[in-house]
Amino acid sequence: MNVLKHIYFWVDERLEMHDYIKKDILDKPIPKGLNLSYCFGGITFFLFVMLAATGYFMTLYYVPSPEQAYDAVDYLTFEIPMGQVIRGVHHWSGNLMMVTIFLHMLRVFIYGAYKKPREINWISGVFLFCLVMGFGFTGYLLPWDQKAYWATKVGTSIMGTVPVVGDYTLRLMRGGSDLGALTLTRFYTLHVLFLPLVTVIFLLAHFVMIRKQGISSPL
Ligand code: HEM
Predict the structure, then answer these.
(1) 170 CA distance to ligand 1 centroid (A)?
(2) Which residues of the chain have pLDDT under 50?
(3) Is the pTM higher than 0.90?
(4) Which residues fall within 8 angstroms of residue 103, CB to CB, at 6 or more apart?
């Protein structure tokens, strides 16, 4: 413990972060009378961290190719020590996050916390909501089993019914007219690279705004 303290003070002597972290991040006052519903944003963030941690572990074994994806997931689940637990935590965190993000949004809506001056934060939240849905949609295909294949076939077909841009979006998502190797590669890249990167940027903006504006008071 003493060693850690020593390292902390050694780094702080050079970077002078202590005052900033303490005053601007840890010691920020919150309004009186907050209740449990104010925790849903934090719980959503916690679940996002769990998803990232378990997801990055699973990329060590996953292979985004139609010939190997199913077997790779099967191997990870049944042969790797703790593999089933890690996949299970990823699965349930993903499902729970859909619930908590909705409850968080509902709390913000009911308390009118989207009103001036927090409109931009609400808008960043709407983007976060779409990104979280995107994670769910792209992740569902990755096990490449019957359920994944047909759900994605239906999902992308629905995209294809959008007027004007529908056909283009369908081909862009599938990488052609039908589902295949390119679809899996695209969904995998979206799931592990593009969506996490954009989500982290939006989360940073979300948190900076929360710190700047403070949390709204209860009704
Ligand atoms: C990954 C998704 C999200 C995370 C991790 C997240 C996290 C947070 C956290 C930790 C807070 C602090 C207060 C609280 O927890 O209630 C907060 C506040 C806020 N969030 Fe989110 N949020 C997310 C998505 C959303 C969505 C979908 C919306 C709305 C469309 C939204 C709108 C807001 C607003 C307006 C505030 C300020 C509320 C206030 O001052 O009372 N957020 N968010």
Answers:
(1) 31
(2) none
(3) yes
(4) 37, 40
